[in-house]
Design brief:
- The complex is a heterodimer.
- By secondary structure, chain A is mainly alpha-helical.
- Chain A contains 19 helices and two strands.
- In chain A, 76% of the residues lie in helices and 2% in strands.
- Chain A has a two-stranded antiparallel sheet.
- In chain A, helix 6 packs across helix 9.
- Chain A starts with 6 loop residues before the first helix and ends in an 11-residue tail after the last helix.
- Chain B has a single domain, classed as Helix Hairpins.
- Helices cover 81% and strands 0% of the residues of chain B.
- Chain B has three helices and no strands.
- In chain B, helix 1 runs antiparallel to helix 2 and helix 2 packs antiparallel against helix 3.
- The chains are: A mainly alpha, B mainly alpha.
- At the A-B interface, helix 5 and helix 6 of A face helix 1, helix 2 and helix 3 of B.
Chain lengths: 485, 96
């Protein structure tokens, strides 16, 4: 029994209920629950580093009939990122939403979304994952509509219908798996799976549902409008966390559960879609006229990089080389989570202070909002993949492994994507440092700038310089001395 | 001869396909919400027929898929409620 695992799910849920029944103290309930969840995630991370895997049979029911909660290095590191991003974005939201009524609307939904996300990361059972995926989707849609503008509502409706189709496809796959193997527990399943047509159909359905939810090109069409029209803290969480939850599931299914049933060709297909996403997303981000739209398209591109790792991972022999690459994949996902949330929070400050986020009219921002501009620059460094950010190490490892596996095709894709990322980040900074009026800094908004700065610093400095810790956590029994630079 | 569970299962697949087609092609939000529900009904029917799969050996149908369908129905109702609420807000904003 390890009841610690239930805390990251229970604490935000409790906070959400408190914020709902006690709207006037919603800020305290929300921030308290976020801090407590962060502490719990930290403990889980420390335990995972010591013992590799934690498991909890909820209510004492053994897996099979009952549902298990599990944490390994992958879920623990994502959990830690999620709690930290949620805490920073929540702190930001207390300034961003000036009216108390808005905050009372925001906190219960926000904490429900965090609850669902943590339950998804810790769940060890496929059907439970379906339920958490739906809960996450519903909470995310409601949050995306919180702005209340017509564009936001339309984007939310599209987000909802597309998301529902994705989860129904996933559910159908879950049903086929149960029909074939009589269990939905992922660890039990991993021992029973055979390479046979029914498994392929089930895996294809589940993966298709998850690809829609993780907005992999060409299923990304719903993402830019939904992420760009949401309030800034919500955009940050949608891009940094919610999209990554679906990718986490793809990774879990492909690498841990169904690895025996996979062929290199299917992984290559995911890689090709990822490569298209890198090029298309980066190009659209370069052409975007508004800052938040740029950030949303940049998410499409960065998700593409994550999918590029999959064919290379499957082509690499299990062992040290594969562990290194897997650690790099997690490092990439974490760095993107921190940098993109920081970028969205910074964009939210500009949108609020200047009244618009048109990139061409950003002149004077660097003088008026130096901290926010610094946040955008730091986050940009991580998005491009310049040292010392974690993205730099991760991309380096990806290219090294791709060459070792003979998959040369991905090298030019990564190079073009990185160049385009440099172009879109420097376009923003170029305008921001240009001449212009700009709005004056405001002391009240310093409280919002600090969490954004914290996230950007984690992405650029902490994850880059402390990257060895990621490998220690993700790869059991490893020391990261093998990481070459 | 087709056994009953295969017929139900195939009906489920058919409902899912019909719903999917309408979800993608219909322009009106209400029609899309209904279509997604038809889709969901198809999936649930498949689950129910899965429960009868091993009936020859067992005396009673497998309860696990039934429990899953019940949970799935709750989720579907909540999702439909959210979609309808959003649709109403959208319509009110159009009237203004």
């Amino acid at each position: 029994m390890n009841n610690l695992l239930a805390l990251p799910v229970v604490l935000p849920l409790l906070g959400s209920l408190l914020a709902l029944v006690w709207p006037r103290r919603a800020d305290w309930a929300g921030l308290g629950a976020s801090v407590a969840a962060f502490v719990a995630a930290g403990h889980i991370g420390a335990e995972v580093m010591r013992n590799a895997t934690l498991e909890l049979a909820v209510g004492g029911w053994a897996p099979g009939l009952g549902i298990a909660l599990r944490a390994d290095g992958l879920s623990a590191s994502l959990l830690l990122m999620s709690t930290l991003v949620a805490l920073a974005a929540g702190l930001y939201a207390t300034t961003y939403f000036a009216e108390a009524q808005k905050r009372a609307d925001f906190w219960p939904l926000w904490l429900l979304m965090i609850t669902a996300l943590h339950a998804l990361l810790l769940s060890g059972d496929l059907f439970n994952i379906y339920v958490t995926l739906e809960l996450l989707g519903l909470a995310a849609v409601a949050l995306a509509a919180l702005g209340g503008s017509r564009a936001a509502l339309q984007a939310a409706v599209r987000y909802l219908t597309v998301g529902l189709l994705g989860s129904l496809a996933f559910l159908t796959g879950v049903g086929l798996i149960y029909a074939g193997y009589g269990t939905l527990d992922m660890v039990m399943l991993a021992g029973r799976v055979d390479a046979e047509p029914a498994t392929w159909v089930a895996l294809a359905l589940m993966t298709a549902g998850l690809l829609i939810k993780s907005a992999l090109f060409p299923m990304h069409f719903w993402l830019p409008s939904a992420h760009a029209n949401a309030p800034a803290p919500v955009s940050a969480a949608l891009s940094a966390l919610v999209v990554k939850a679906a990718f986490y599931l793809v990774l879990r299914l492909w690498l841990d559960v169904f690895d025996v049933a996979l062929s290199q060709a299917s992984a290559g297909l995911l890689g090709l879609l990822g490569a298209s996403a890198v090029i298309w997303g980066s190009w659209q981000a370069y052409r975007a006229e508004r800052l938040k739209l740029l950030a949303a398209y940049s998410t499409v591109a960065q998700i593409g990089y994550l999918f590029l790792f999959i064919p290379v991972l499957l082509a690499t022999e299990p062992g040290e080389a594969r562990d290194l690459l897997f650690g790099a994949l997690v490092l990439f996902a974490l760095t993107h989570g921190f940098s993109k949330s920081a970028f969205f929070l910074g964009a939210g400050v500009i949108l609020h202070r200047a009244g618009h986020d048109r990139i061409a009219e950003l002149g004077g921002t660097a003088r008026a909002l130096p901290v926010t501009t610094f946040v955008l620059a730091l986050a940009g460094i991580a998005l491009i993949g310049l040292p010392p950010s974690g993205t730099f190490l991760a991309k380096w490892q990806l290219m090294t492994s791709a060459i070792a596996a003979g998959q040369w095709l991905w090298i030019p894709v990564i190079a073009i994507g990185t160049l385009l990322a440099g172009a879109y980040v420097f376009r923003v900074l170029g305008h921001a440092f240009g001449p212009g009026e700009g709005v004056g800094p405001s002391l009240a908004w310093a409280r919002a700038e600090l969490p954004a700065l914290l996230l950007a610093l984690v992405a650029t400095a902490v994850l880059g310089l402390g990257a060895a810790q990621v490998w220690t956590m993700v790869v059991p029994g490893s020391n990261a001395e093998g990481v070459s630079l | 001869m087709l056994s009953a569970e295969i017929i139900y299962g195939l009906t489920g697949v058919g409902l899912f396909t019909l719903g999917l087609r309408a979800t993608l092609l219909q322009a009106s939000l209400l029609a899309r919400i209904l279509a997604i529900n038809v889709c969901g009904a198809g999936v649930f029917l498949m689950f129910v027929s899965i429960a009868y799969q091993g009936l020859a050996q067992m005396q009673v149908p497998d309860p696990v898929p039934h429990a899953l369908v019940l949970t799935g129905i709750v989720v579907a109702v909540s999702a439909t409620a959210l979609a309808l609420a959003l649709g109403r807000r959208l319509r009110e904003s159009k009237d203004e």
